[in-house]
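Appendix B, Record 12. Input sequence as logged:
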Amino acid sequence: MHQPLAPLRSIHPDRTPPRILLYSHDTFGLGHLRRSRTIAQALVSAFPDASALILTGSPVAGRFDFPERVDHVRLPGVVKLPDGGYTARNLGLPIEETAAIRAEIIRATARAFRPTLAIVDKEPTGLHGEFLPALEEMRATGNTRVVLGLRDVLDAPEALQPEWERKEAVAAIERYYDQLWIYGLPEVYRPLDGLDLPAEIAARVRYTGYLKREPTEGGGAVQAADLPMAAPYVLVTPGGGGDGAALVDWTIAAYEADPDLTPRALIVYGPFLEDARRQEFATRIRRLKGRVETINFHSRMEDLYAGAIGVVAMGGYNTFCEILSFDKPSVLAPRTRPRLEQRIRAEAAEALGLLRTLDSDRDGTDPLAMAAAIRALSSQPPPSASPLPGLLGGLDRIVDLTREVLEADSVIARATPVTPIRRAAERMSRAMAGKRA
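Logged structural output:
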């Protein structure tokens, strides 16, 4: 836990206590919301006079517990399509109109909340540019420091460069952002290498280390009555589950192929696994007679690690942080579509001795290969056997950087030339006005 620090308002006596706005677009999975929630909790713990408000598009945000002085505003849901486009999750409206509604909520919330710090997760302009009107207003008032938070791996550089060009990300960073926080270490991966970034943007980059997770209050393993299986077990987690069916299938197949495989497996499907696949898996699991059990979702995933002797996962950012935090031997089977993010992270971590990988493209999906990897977890060294200084220092570093960025003068020039990114903000504002008309 973070020791409470001196109130920030003592540094700026003319300011109200700090208000931290976190934006998490959340079109797929749980990663952005869980990361924002972890950061918000660390900041309000460190600064007793601070409040944090999370803007999120996650449909399951209400199923999470939020600590005191942290709350959330739910944006209308959007889902990513297989072709890379987006559509409204429930509204049945065109994506342009849905984005305009979300932009209106974002701007109104920012106006009312009056943040002293805004932390934007991953997308510099927001989904379909929805954060631009709020960014433009915050820039105009000059009362909000703005930070772009980036996970340790975004995508392969050859894919990231055209994506950032299409979204005018560099122009947005130049115009609106005081700092860029990378939630990882350069010794593991440098996500912006290979991009043609101006020197002034490179100077705003700060690496934090990974975000350490703790058991929830009370600590220890989840009560046995809350789980279908007592410890010890192998924890199998495909994150949010939306693209995790292949990992679940491979794990079940390992227990089917090897009747003597131990330890038993506890699979957490995630809230976004398709119902049809759940039913299919349930039929197969019943034949395994208790060697594999499942739960659909757990809002306190951190607590499930206490009873695990090892972890089988895909390797999303939050799962990787949990593996490091709870020091669990792990095997990752990363997805490779639509991004190479998980494979890059898994291979970098394996090269450092932090875990081992099974790559379905490289190794195939032989059930006996997965069975061998699960059996080996009991003798596999944990991540702490390959120490890396500052590996889990992310939250402490974010607390320090928050103080730094709020104490400093903004690096953003206050002149407002008409630039393409400003025109994009104006276009979104016109779309919002058209929606109201």
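The chain is about 35% helix and 15% strand.
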